[in-house]
Amino acid sequence: MLIDLGSNLPGYHGAGAKEVLLGKYEALMAHGDYTKLVEAVKRMRTYHTARCMDISGKGKIFVTPYFVSHSAFDAYMLLIECEGKRILHTGDFRGHGFLGKVVFAAFFRAGYMME
């Protein structure tokens, strides 16, 4: 489900997830008016793994997404930094398999250790 935060508060998605959402709502246009949802998706900003973003626009709040292996397409954990503090929001991820190995690399890049 897509929640439109309005044009003053941007939403963020991975580039792949944004493309899927846009395709979904454009296809649904044949069955109803999804214009507002299409416009909301087009306004969304995209992020890319390991690229730090200044989401405050003032050099105060930074978010760095890291790709995680998950059953949901284009999933990320987020390193949030503000006022010298760091929070790693891992969300739900898989630690097994080939793609699961990148999760642990993200922990180490973020300065966290796992036992």
H and E order:
EHHEEEEEH
Q: Outline the low-pLDDT stretches.
A: none
Shape: flat
N/C terminus separation = 36 Å
Please state the average pLDDT score: 81
How big is the Rg? Answer: 16 Å
Total E-strand runs: 6
SS-based structural class?
Answer: alpha+beta
Beta-strand content bin: 15-25%
User: What count of helical segments does DSSP give?
Assistant: 3
What does the largest sheet look like?
A: 4 strands, antiparallel
Enumerate the strands of the largest sheet in spatial order, edge to edge or round the barrel.
3-4-5-6
Indicate the percent of residues in helices: 25-40%
Q: Would you give an account of this structure?
A:
It is a single chain. A hairpin with a 2-residue loop joins strand 5 (76-82) and strand 6. By secondary structure, the protein is of the alpha+beta class. 31% of the residues lie in helices and 23% in strands.
Task: Write the topology of this structure.
Layout (H helix, E strand, L loop, with lengths): L11 E3 H14 L6 H9 L1 E3 L5 E2 L6 E7 L8 E7 L2 E5 L7 H13 L6
Parallel strand pairs: 1-2
Antiparallel strand pairs: 3-4, 4-5, 5-6
Helix pairs in contact: 1-2
List keywords for this structure.
single chain, 115 residues, alpha+beta, two-stranded parallel ribbon, 31% helix, 23% strand, flat
